[in-house]
User: What shape does this take?
Amino acid sequence: MAYTVSQSPHFKNSATTQRIMLDVIIALIPALIASVLIFGFFPLVVAIVSIASAVFSEWFYNFITKKPQTTSDLSAVVTGLLLALNLPPVVPLYIPVIGSIFAIMVVKMLFGGLGKNFANPAITARIFVMLAWTAAMTTWIKPIDLSDGANLFSYFGMSNYDGLTSATPLAIIKSEGSVASINLLDLFLGTTGGSAGEVSALALLIGGVYLIVRRVIDYKIPLIYILTVGFLTSLIELDIAYFLPSILSGGLMLGAIFMATDYSTSPNGFWGVIVYALGLGILTVLIRKFSNMPEGVSFAILIMNIVTPLIDKYIYPRPFGAVRKKLNFKKNKEVKAE
Amino acid sequence: MKFTFPHGIHVKDNKDITKSIPLRNLDAPEKVYICLSQHIGKPADCLVKPGDKVKCGTLIGAASGAFSANIYSSVSGEVEAIADRVNAQGIMCKHVVIKNDFSNEEVLLPSLDLDKVTADDIIERIKTAGIVGMGGAGFPTHIKLKPQDKVDTLIINGAECEPYITCDYRLMLEKSKEVIAGAVWLKKALGVEKVYIGIEDNKMSAVEALKNVAHSDIEVIAVKEKYPQGAERQLIYSVTKRKVPAGALPAKAGVVVENIHTAYSVYEAMELNKPLYSRALTVSGRAIDKPGNFFVPTGVTYDFLLSRCSSEGDIKVAKVISGGPMMGFAQASLDAAICKNSSAVLFLTKEETDFNKPSACINCARCARACPMRLMPMFIDSCVISGDLQGAKKYGLNNCIECGSCAYVCPAKRSIVQSVRQGKRLDRASGGK
Assistant: This one.
């Protein structure tokens, strides 16, 4: 009988790429449910269309380039779902379709597929459709409020209720110049205007805790990112009242937990991660405060994604037992050192 | 204080298969194939020719220079041939083939006056007996005992962190007094004050057994169960919190590490005058139905072990491994023979071992979080594959101890260790530039 010969180790754990992607999908389900509860069933339709076109794009790309099929690793599903949750609750359906095709074909597959993309496909696609269809991408419907004239038909978009538009909390803060009119409970639960998946901080935090417990993501990136935004905003405004509104509003939770932690576009070393997360926080605050856009998470993530290869090139851990470069002058004296 | 090291992984240990089976002697086969290169360094010079009569303990290979070791016959009988055969590492080397006459005649080394021996006498005896590091590397012990740097600590490595292997555990349990006696001789040879015995805390009965017989100057320490706790640098850090400088030998940190079985063999050489020609060995895996821990003579082939440990041959065997599953060598055939440094032979079923095809790296950095040497395995892998040796070295290629933690946790099932070995080979070939 022939025995298999291979290099060690001959023993591996059960983790697979597919399982990791499945965990991310599971972690996004609370946010999807929240968006349905808040805005009705249309976000679900957007999500299905978006996922379907993302998976089809990957399959089609592999088909025409005669490459092995990779759709079973579920990463296209994650991209499609993330993009859908980043869109306004009600959008023309060609937006998720074109967005997904752009995310998969251009950002992911053209650069070599899973693990080789230079930026997070979903965030880049969101920026792309945002610039292409700015009006549609900034039309926010009001959350369905049963105590305020809505009825069960509103969930199916069958009443005239969904014609009402609303402003996002960040836009309100920016135009009013204060956080006085912001209801923190609404922000936390998500009953405000905004993208389908970004509004409910509660649902996103549940997903985030799941990912951290399953050790899918590094807790340092979301934690440092979110805290940096909170403290820096408070510092710039010289008012600690800005702390909670700044971290609960906009796409920060969604971006910090699900998109900034994208493996291939975040650094891998301890200090690299810290530089990356701090950079994300600082850029987000600067864009929110000083640009004419109310929201800065997407651009902050895109910029730091592009910086990541530089971080990995210059900031990497010192091997166990290697002496610091400065200590080299002392040579062998400090054997027990460190 | 916690006796552990940064990073590392938790591995399913599978030691249950053989943990409770006592060590027993395995009878010698008709023929043994004794490799003349059972250690790191130059192969021993062959002292016999076909037709020569030998006994158990006859010197058949003499150490060739300082960095080599003596080789002894493990059976009595007649030398049949000097043949080129493949060893467990897949390298062609000279083997002495001896036909067993089953008379079991023994020759011993001259006995020593144990009350008067000096450190040099002990080292000389260890050199004569052909003792090498028996944990796997096979580094000649007499060289380790004469370190270039000032050494103040001796650590006896009983971590046995590789899954499946239990022979060191059984040795500590059943031969506790002998192991401690060997440790005392090693301590005397090195002239150090402090001796630690580091044992993983999943083997508490071995810790207790050794504590019961240890003298006050030998401290038995239960280190945390974590892979690779038995790697030299990691064990030294766990026990003493010293870091061995990268690229240097442990002696640079004032420590010498010896394997538990080496200590036992030192005891045999000193007090029983027996040179090293047999060892404890675990034969395990779910593809065989009679696994166990055995004292086997060197030169026994894997074929013979399989015939003794399985009643249905190799029907279920998918992979044969010399050593543990994390760092051991897969065998293409059963021709290889047991050497001084073989700690286990595993016969694994298809379900037990990994047959996944590698897929694209997703950069999840699990390997970097697992790496006990704090390297960046994913970048080393991609740099080696794209031929960028400088890049691979920047991320720590030559600091890698090849423990396999990175490949164990990799969700994309990439063969990272293979890339590392390839990279190191290319680096050596290019003269390290």
Q: What stands out?
A: Residues 366-429 of chain B form one domain.
